[in-house]
UniProtKB/TrEMBL annotation:
The keyword Signal applies. This is non-specific serine/threonine protein kinase. GO terms for molecular function: ATP binding; chitin binding; protein serine/threonine kinase activity; transmembrane receptor protein kinase activity. Its EC number is 2.7.11.1. It comes from Zingiber officinale. The keyword Cytoplasm does not apply. Keywords: ATP-binding, Cell membrane, Chitin-binding, Disulfide bond, Glycoprotein, Kinase, Membrane, Nucleotide-binding, Receptor, Serine/threonine-protein kinase, Signal, Transferase, Transmembrane, Transmembrane helix. It is a single-pass membrane protein. ATP binds at residue 413. One of its GO terms (cellular component) is plasma membrane. Its main location: membrane. Residues 189-235 form the LysM domain. It catalyses: L-seryl-[protein] + ATP = O-phospho-L-seryl-[protein] + ADP + H(+); L-threonyl-[protein] + ATP = O-phospho-L-threonyl-[protein] + ADP + H(+). Residues 385-658 form the Protein kinase domain.
Length: 682
């Protein structure tokens, strides 16, 4: 083929590529890149990498050097026919600047050396917030859904006064790093626009350059300079979970927006990577470190040391939370709103559950968003409530397995005398929906009281910890995840519902485990509701060993009752012991798990003493620092004074940090790198 013919053929390919090219998303890496996509067709016959680069360069007005990438698949090169090819594009390519996206080939799912569409995120990432004038931690923390500005303290140890930070400095914020729409890693924050805001001011002044004008424009419908005051907009902050192909030694990454006079050398020096500048370049291919955003490993030491440092931060954070709550509460006058049991029960009856006049006060109960089953349908699905379908039982009823209308279900059969428990659970689960709360399918009030739930196929936490049914011991990482899942469920009913719901019977048998070993909080039969910040007095119900002193002695109920019980569950996760432990061989003496751990943590060397309480079925397969951190968290939760206990929101933040550190340790235990990559989803 003549040179002229080859050039014409290349031009045809270029036009075809351009016509098949489509914007996929706005710049997703700090304004440095955008994504486009096109589909490889059967007519694309690239005979060399240069041929492909030249084709793309011509079609997108790029020079071949800028379009360079490593290719291992393709027609003559191994590119699959049919799948969509993603192209990452540089913001400095002038021909497309007016179109809002600029192109450089650097991203494709078929290129193993570069990160493609994500499958999962990670529990913790950091952001280097660029401080502008008149901004402090009290202003910054709520922007990133951080409960209180003091929670930023452990991540900013060099900052003496969080509310007095000089302009131009960096404040380290934290958040979870999510896989957004299966396309890229980031976190979507919600921001309420105030008068005078523009995308430029929101990106630079409000969010400290951690997002971009282009990202705000893409993920919101308002014009750049006409953002409606009072509207809630999406703010995307990109993040990284690392790249095992570059290094497996780093588990926590910070999103760093570059500002003059930043460059590779200054950034490397700031993060103690002076002798490892190439590592930073490998984590940020294509960046010249003079503009945009880069991702920085937070330390230059081993992954195990990272975990140790993070765990140390957690311990300090937990102790700080306890002390902070204690001193703050002492300065305030104690106020408590006490509701009578009658008022509390009336609130459950009145909200969303109504009775029709009938021979039975429970016949004909109607509840929005829940299915009402007939007794005949439930009896048929359970073989007339036969023993072969019985899967459990408790103080308020017997649980049966069933398949109803094509869905696996668990049916709780309750006595007619269990009216309060039935209505409480019906009320909570009809109005509250969360991934970490068991889902209510429906109910029945004929003959007996029935509640129909989703079927959770892997039993409850107590069964796993005690090895019932020949169950294998739960790995430490799984235990941390179960703790985090359970905490998130409780945080939801404590922090995100009005009125607030209080479970009152948190214990390991009431935490269900699904087939993926994720946890759901169940059994809301003792749930109470109250106003935010209030407590109430009520009759004593629940399970001994999980009851805090103020409840066991005076019947006082507040969300801190659940916090105490959750602390006991954390001790169970560590030790696999019951909440009340027999202390001698004759089983005549018993002791609470809380007292047992309090004694251990009070020893001169609590870390060494703690080994004696760790579940023996774990062997040596656990990070002791992580176990110690969970024990300190449990101790904070089980403080005698409820005012000194953390909130579930603070507990979730602590467990997110602990989970990130533990995951890094866990991945380091696998010798098979391919298995590590598969499990990490990266």
């Amino acid at each position: 083929m003549t040179a002229k013919a080859k050039d014409a053929r290349r031009h045809e390919k270029s036009v075809a590529v351009l016509h098949r090219t489509k914007v996929l998303s706005s710049p997703s890496v700090g304004g440095r890149f955008s994504f486009v996509k096109f589909k490889i067709s059967s007519t694309d016959d690239f005979t060399s990498a240069d041929d492909f680069r030249d084709c793309v360069s011509r079609s997108l007005s790029l020079c071949p050097r800028e379009a360079a990438a490593q290719h291992r698949h393709g027609n003559s090169l191994g590119f699959p026919i049919g799948p969509v090819l993603l192209l990452q594009v540089h913001s400095e390519m002038a021909p497309f600047r007016s179109l809002g996206f600029i192109l450089i080939l650097a991203f494709a799912p078929f290129l193993p050396s570069l990160e493609s569409a994500c499958r999962s995120g990670c529990e913790l990432a950091l952001g280097a917030y660029y401080v502008t004038p008149n901004v402090n931690a009290s202003y910054i923390a709520p922007l990133f859904d951080i409960p209180g500005f003091n929670d930023l303290g452990p991540y900013n140890p060099s900052v003496r006064d969080l509310n007095s930070i000089l302009s131009g400095n960096r404040l380290h914020v934290f958040f979870s790093c999510d896989c957004i729409n299966g396309e890229f890693l980031g976190h979507n924050f919600s921001y309420q626009v105030v008068s005078g805001d523009t995308y430029t001011s929101i990106a630079s002044d409000v969010y400290g350059s951690l997002t971009t004008v282009a990202a705000l424009s893409h993920f919101n419908s308002f014009p750049e300079n006409n953002v409606q005051a009072g509207a809630n907009i999406n703010v995307i902050v990109n993040c990284s979970c690392g790249d095992k192909a570059v290094s497996s030694a780093y588990g926590l990454f910070e999103t760093y927006p570059i500002h003059p006079p930043d460059n590779l050398s200054s950034i490397a020096a700031a993060y103690n990577f002076t002798s490892q500048e190439a590592l930073l370049q490998n984590y940020n291919p294509g960046s010249n470190f003079t503009s945009g955003t880069v991702f920085i490993p937070t330390t230059g030491i081993s992954g195990g040391a990272i975990a140790g440092i993070i765990v140390a931060v957690i311990v300090a954070l937990l102790l700080g939370i306890c002390l902070y709550i204690y001193h703050r509460r002492r300065k305030k006058t104690k106020k408590a709103l006490f509701l009578s049991p009658t008022e509390a029960e009336a609130s459950i009856y009145s909200a969303g559950v109504t009775s029709r006049v009938d021979s039975s006060p429970f016949a004909g109960i109607t509840v929005d968003r829940s299915v009402e089953f007939s007794y005949e349908e439930l009896a048929s699905a359970t073989d007339d409530f036969g023993l072969t379908n019985k899967i459990g039982g408790g103080g308020f009823g017997i649980v049966y397995y069933a398949e109803l209308r094509g869905e696996k279900a668990a049916i709780k059969k309750m006595d007619m005398q269990a009216t309060n428990e039935f209505l409480a659970e019906l009320k909570v689960l009809t109005n509250v929906h969360h991934l970490n709360l068991v889902r209510l399918i429906g109910y029945c009030t004929e003959v007996s009281l029935f509640l129909v739930y989703e079927f959770i196929e892997n039993g409850n936490l107590s069964e796993h910890l005690r090895g019932l049914g020949s169950r294998e011991p739960l790995p430490w990482l799984t235990r941390v995840q179960i703790a985090l899942d359970s905490a998130r469920g409780l945080e939801y009913i404590h922090e995100h519902t009005v009125p607030v719901y209080i479970h009152r019977d948190i214990k390991s048998p009431n935490i269900l485990i699904n087939k993926n070993f994720r946890a759901k909080v169940a059994d809301f039969g003792l749930a109470k509701l109250t106003e935010v910040g209030a407590s109430l007095q009520t009759r004593l119900v629940g399970t001994f060993g999980y009851m805090p002193p103020e409840y066991a002695q005076y019947g006082e109920v507040s969300p801190k009752v659940d916090v105490y019980a959750f602390g006991v569950v954390l001790y169970e996760l560590i030790s696999a012991k019951d909440a009340i432990v027999k202390t001698d061989s004759s089983a005549t003496e018993s002791r609470g798990l809380v007292a047992l751990f309090d004694e251990t943590l009070g020893k001169p060397d609590p870390k060494e003493e703690l080994k004696k309480l760790v579940d023996p079925r774990l062997g040596q397969d656990y990070p002791l620092d992580s176990v110690l951190a969970m024990a300190w968290l449990a101790k904070c939760c089980t403080q005698e004074n409820p005012l000194q206990r953390p909130s579930m929101r603070q507990i979730v933040v602590s467990l997110m940090t602990l989970s990130s550190a533990t995951e890094d340790w866990d991945m380091g235990t696998f010798a098979n790198q391919s298995l590590v990559n598969l499990m990490s989803g990266r």
